[in-house]
Structures are given as structure tokens and as C-alpha cells.
Amino acid sequence: MVTSQHSDIDVVVKKILQVSKQGQKEYITKVKVISQLRHRNLVRLLGWSHDRGQFMLVYEFMQNGSLDSHLFSKNCALTWDMRYKICLGLVNALDYLHKNWEQCMVHQDIKTANVILDSKFNVKLGDFRLAELMDHDLGPPTTDLA
């Protein structure tokens, strides 16, 4: 976690270790698209950098970490109400990505490590590195099942 010098916002800086030359242009395009996503149940990408082949992504910091750290701990304190709230938040995020954004975005890497929890255990879906964009009318019918 890093605290910004220009504001009181805590952020997480994620360093992407390897991006091939061929994938750099595609990756930059994807990051630009992801930085435009705005929904209460998506981890917000605040900034990014690609300098000398190093890619860094700056995200908002989530106080309660990932869902897997809670589910797989011996002292799991997630009540059924909290679990229901988490499921609802995840469904809202997927509905936005699949139906309500400019293009249909398919995340392709939904797992408990990518489900992040804020200070009030509101869910935010993160890590869009594998996401794919497609036109709404060309999207697979499985996106309607989420």
C-alpha cells in the first residue's frame, strides 16, 4: 500500500512483470479501456505507467483485502448476510460489465482472489488483465447467465 503525496488516498501499485513487445500495444489499449470503467462494484484503476518496458497499475486500496483471505482463514468471520451482500455486489459488477457498459466486457478470471472487499465489506471486482471486449450483439449467450 502507498499513500499518495497529493491526497489522502491510499493506493495499491501493482507491477506487471512481463509483457512481450507484441503484447505491449494491446495491453496499453486494454488498460486505457479499463481505466474508463466506473461502477461501485469494480476496483477503480486510478492510474498506470509504462516506462522502459515496466508496467505499473495504480488501484484504490481496499481495506479488507481479497475474499479468499477471509474464506480460507481459520477465523472466517463472514456472516451469511455478509456473504449474500458479497454475492449481490459481484452480480451487479458482472451485469454492468456484460450489459451496461459501452461494450460487453468478459472478465475471464473471476476467482476469490480477484473479489476485493472495502472497509464495510462491499465487494469490488478487480484484475482485468485477461478481460476481453466484444460487441453486445455478438457476445456469447452465457453472459446472460451471470
UniProtKB/TrEMBL annotation:
<dbReference type="GO" id="GO:0051707">
    <property type="term" value="P:response to other organism"/>
</dbReference>
<keyword id="KW-0547">Nucleotide-binding</keyword>
<protein>
    <recommendedName>
        <fullName>Protein kinase domain-containing protein</fullName>
    </recommendedName>
</protein>
<dbReference type="GO" id="GO:0005524">
    <property type="term" value="F:ATP binding"/>
</dbReference>
<dbReference type="InterPro" id="IPR008271">
    <property type="entry name" value="Ser/Thr_kinase_AS"/>
</dbReference>
<keyword id="KW-0067">ATP-binding</keyword>
<dbReference type="InterPro" id="IPR011009">
    <property type="entry name" value="Kinase-like_dom_sf"/>
</dbReference>
<dbReference type="GO" id="GO:0004713">
    <property type="term" value="F:protein tyrosine kinase activity"/>
</dbReference>
<dbReference type="InterPro" id="IPR050528">
    <property type="entry name" value="L-type_Lectin-RKs"/>
</dbReference>
<dbReference type="InterPro" id="IPR020635">
    <property type="entry name" value="Tyr_kinase_cat_dom"/>
</dbReference>
<dbReference type="Pfam" id="PF07714">
    <property type="entry name" value="PK_Tyr_Ser-Thr"/>
</dbReference>
<feature type="domain" description="Protein kinase">
    <location>
        <begin position="1"/>
        <end position="146"/>
    </location>
</feature>
<dbReference type="InterPro" id="IPR000719">
    <property type="entry name" value="Prot_kinase_dom"/>
</dbReference>
<dbReference type="InterPro" id="IPR001245">
    <property type="entry name" value="Ser-Thr/Tyr_kinase_cat_dom"/>
</dbReference>
